[in-house]
Amino acid sequence: MKVEAAPHSAAALVLYALVNTLEREQAGCLFKLTKLRDLDGEGRKLAYRLMELMAEGGNRGARWEAVKARLDELVRSG
What we know:
single chain
């Protein structure tokens, strides 16, 4: 996972922000799309897959919560 390799990098923080945004459907999942420019091609592909996952309803449930908890731990550490 890209975030595990460098959890405090700009790319990791953009992806982390996207994941947090995708949980806020009532707020319209507002995410500044220009932040995608901060990602390389691989990072943008991951971002697009996350958006597709949300569109399919995969942004909830036990698996989502476990991955989100791991991201929280990585980004908030050290």
